[in-house]
């Protein structure tokens, strides 16, 4: 039976609720984050800043972060249209908003997505069935990201 929390007993700072709040914070544009820094957020949770850094490296957290990122940005078609418009504006030296557009483009493209981790996986036809669902999803996601990057670079 699960232990009930006693009144006055401090809450565990490493809860799923704090992880969800941290995830939402990461998906918020940097200039809109409150608190402004990861260190301040760690203090608010009552944990050391390295705890948050460790969460960000967790495969499960990275998977959630990526899924939430994709939901936040919207459909791939919408993201593509927005990014194309920002890129056109950013590269048009005659447009007075080209600097703002370039800043927005790089901010959207880089700041909300979790950092990529290089993973080398060798899969044989026989071993695919041995992959966990999460490993298979990560492998497919990495391949899809690579393909989308190639298409984006080609356009």
Short description:
The protein has 155 residues and is mainly alpha-helical. It is 61% helix and 0% strand.
Descriptive key words:
mainly alpha, 0% strand, 7 helices, 155 residues, disordered N terminus, single chain
Tally of contiguous helical segments: 7
- Residues in helix, %: 55-70%
How would you characterize the largest beta sheet? none
How much strand content do the residues show?
A: under 5%
- How many E-type strands? 0
How far do the termini sit from each other?
58 Å
Structural class: mainly alpha
Give helix and strand order, one letter per element, not per position. HHHHHHH
Low-confidence stretches: 1-11
Inertia-based shape: flat
Overall pLDDT confidence:
79
Explained architecture:
It is a single chain. By secondary structure, the chain is mostly helical. Among the domains are: 14-73; 75-114. 61% of the residues lie in helices and 0% in strands. It has helices at 16-26, 38-45, 49-57, 59-73, 76-91, 98-111, 133-154. The longest helix has 22 residues, at 133-154. The chain is flat, with a radius of gyration of 20 Å. Mean pLDDT is 79; it is low at 1-11.
